[in-house]
């Protein structure tokens, strides 16, 4: 057992509780928050190292072995996402220092920030479906508060919509868990994989599988993304970056884990359904990205396109495509945070979110402009940037496994991403200046610092793709053949007992 696995949850949770008592001491809140995120990055690096060196790590809470107790599991897939979340979370925190404003900081912004990270880390590390539900609820409750913090009319309206959608999906999640427990007698993921294989995936098992897919799709924005473009446009800029980088990825992680470990015996139903949902999501996301001249909505529909692209890789379900899913998830978490950072700087500089009211910013903010252009190339998948390796693996597998239609849709969606973001680049940075708004120099530098860190990372991930792929291949191998996961979490524990 490895007690280190609970630290990514305990550190932000403990930090959040401490910050409740420091409401009026903003600078101290910032210092404690910064220490917390840096410690979590260090812990995440150690976990990745341990998984790489010693294999899958487990922690049985209270010493209770499956199927009775709560288990935390770090395979390479979970470990890499925990590390990426820790880095992105730190960047979002420092962007918050420059952009969120003292009014929100005094009303427990950093408390909610750390509770949200607690839920995200817990979702990646849990080995139990009910605990996954609990972690979902922790991050959702924190996200409700972060959307509404500020109390504008738009925020209140979108918060109600966001809460309603997630209450419905959470209710369905509880129902699916209840049915699954009634059918198998367990909620431990590794044990579920054994029980479903023994019972055969048909009839009621397929109904439960589709219900879980519906739940996770609502949370990921896969096909059922009607709530996402407006809800993600309502909160402050730093919150948009945090949501765009992390929240949909938790739903995609749940889909990947569930349909590579538990429900793998009837891919003609489950994976085909994921595939066609992915295709529809990419098409509809592309329509939205082309239709709007509002910066936030263009970015939000690009989130939708990437959700569909990743789901396409999940549906192909070869080791190569699953390697691509892991690589692209890491890339997209970093790239989407950077996209919203740069978008926030653009909005602060121009004083508007409407493209037609922007222009000429390249003269005052050349670094922002050229970072945005290179990020666009990374999101499209131009080598040697970070988006290339993951996209190549997924598209190559799609063509190789006769998912030609979906692979073509995925390629076409990349051209839509290119067009939509180049349109933003052209409208925002070229032409004559249409606004006299000015970002305060110190604020601009503070906003640029976390953006620059993420910008360097997307370049390093691309240039060092061979090194990163060594870790990614370990994650993909366990997803493609979950026997190692089942043995590490359940079979070995039962034998020890």
TrEMBL record:
NADH:quinone oxidoreductase/Mrp antiporter transmembrane domain residues: 127-414
Keywords: Antiport, Cell membrane, Membrane, Transmembrane, Transmembrane helix, Transport
Entries under InterPro entries matching the protein: CPA3_Na-H_Antiporter_D, NADH_UbQ_OxRdtase, ND/Mrp_TM
Statement: the UniProt record of this protein carries the keyword Lyase: no
Source organism, top-level taxon: Bacteria
Pfam families the UniProt entry points to: Proton_antipo_M (PF00361)
Topology versus the membrane: Multi-pass membrane protein
Localization in the cell: Cell membrane; Membrane
Transmembrane stretches, start-end: 6-22, 31-49, 69-95, 107-124, 130-150, 162-183, 203-228, 237-256, 268-292, 299-317, 337-355, 367-385, 405-425, 446-465
Main location: membrane
Similarity annotation: Belongs to the CPA3 antiporters (TC 2.A.63) subunit D family.
PANTHER family listed in its UniProt record: NA(+)_H(+) ANTIPORTER SUBUNIT D1, NADH DEHYDROGENASE
Name the record gives this protein: Na+/H+ antiporter subunit D
Originating organism: Paenibacillus phytohabitans
